[in-house]
């Protein structure tokens, strides 16, 4: 009887364990790269230094599943299991770029969802003149 109880306890314990995924993969089956949900063409309203405009941008795949490109070779690092990201200060073609973003709505439970809304803020600085432009965008359409 005691052996049967130990076997039952072990089975329950093993069934309750979640698979440990490699960094940048999830959610439960470890098959999906975190950056997959960010890749694509995005559009939505942006405010850059008080000027409102609709922006179309493209986020591209990085070789590291915990990163994606936000502009040319400027990348973002995904955090919090794919719910936010940081753009560490980087420079490309005379422009310094830094910022952050977060997922503020994801509508497909248990998955990386097909309806995704991003808040994306960044500062672009012309390295020659030092002039900085601060932008806040709400990307609400992935094409």
Q: How would you concisely characterize the structure shown here?
A:
With 143 residues, the chain is mainly beta. The chain has one helix at residues 2-15; strands at 25-26, 32-33, 40-48, 51-61, 67-71, 74-79, 84-92, 95-106, 116-126, 132-139, 141-142. An eight-stranded antiparallel beta barrel has the order 3-4-5-6-7-8-9-10. A two-stranded antiparallel ribbon has the order 1-2.
Task: Give structural notes.
This protein is mostly beta strands. The protein has one domain: Lipocalin (Beta Barrel). It is 10% helix and 54% strand. It has 1 helix and 11 strands; from the N terminus they run H-E-E-E-E-E-E-E-E-E-E-E. It has one helix spanning 2-15; strands at residues 25-26, 32-33, 40-48, 51-61, 67-71, 74-79, 84-92, 95-106, 116-126, 132-139, 141-142. Strands 3-4-5-6-7-8-9-10 form an 8-stranded antiparallel β-barrel. Strands 1-2 form a two-stranded antiparallel ribbon.
């Amino acid at each position: 009887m005691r052996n049967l109880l130990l076997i039952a306890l072990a089975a329950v314990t093993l069934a309750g364990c979640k698979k440990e995924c490699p960094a940048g993969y999830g959610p439960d089956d470890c098959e999906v790269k975190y950056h997959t949900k960010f890749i694509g063409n995005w559009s939505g309203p942006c405010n850059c230094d008080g000027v409102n405009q609709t922006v179309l941008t493209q986020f591209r795949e990085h070789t590291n599943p915990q990163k994606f490109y936000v502009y040319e070779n400027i990348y973002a690092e995904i955090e919090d299991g794919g719910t936010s990201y940081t753009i560490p200060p980087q420079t490309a073609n005379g422009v310094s770029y830094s910022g952050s973003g977060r997922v503020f709505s994801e509508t497909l439970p248990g998955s990386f969802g097909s309806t995704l809304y991003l808040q994306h803020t960044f500062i672009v600085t012309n390295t020659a003149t030092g002039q900085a432009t601060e932008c806040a965008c709400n990307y609400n359409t992935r094409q």
